[in-house]
Structure formats: C-alpha cells, structure tokens
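Let us practice reading a record.
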Amino acid sequence: MIYENIDQLKKGCESILAYDGGDVRVLNEARFQEKLIDDLIYTVVFSPDPATQEAAGFLIRRGASALGIMSASIQSFTKPWAVKNSADLPFRRSISAALPTMWRRLYSVPR
C-alpha cells in the first residue's frame, strides 16, 4: 500500500510501530518485517506527498535501528578509488563492474 498522506501512514503503523518524542519502537517485529516495511518503501518512492515520503523514510531508518539494523554504505571505499583510478576504467564501464578490481587493489588481494 502506498500511503498518500500522514493520516494514512499513522493508521497503517498502528500496533506495529510506536512513535514517542523522536524515538520509534517496534511493537510487532513480524508485521514490521513482513508487511509494513514494503509499504513504507513504496510510500517513500511513490507517495504524492513529500511530507509523507519523508516520514516513511524516517520510520524505515528508526524502525530498522530499533531492531539493531544499521545503515551502511561502501561509498567511502569506492569514491577515492574511482577518482584515483578513473583513467584505468575503459569508457562506459561502470563502477559496479570495477568493484572486484577495486577490492583487490584496496586490500592487495592477488588474483
């Protein structure tokens, strides 16, 4: 389900998430993981209301954090390599295609 406004979002989160002064608690972990998380993702991407999109993204991050799931990125590893070695990449070759090479160079792993 794509929540189109904040009221729909609040109703969809009832008995699954609790929001208390900036803190999000997961009341029903199974329903959060099996159903609500997908609805929140669809809302972030497709909701016509920017405030609802932002609130859904907040609930995803805080709900995941409440379950011990932390956001992570490999950008800090890939960006310096991409800038330093951009001449090594053939034209039109994506960074994702170059990741195995990049990891070997970063960690000196032989082929």
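A brief commentary: The beta strands are 17-20, 23-26.
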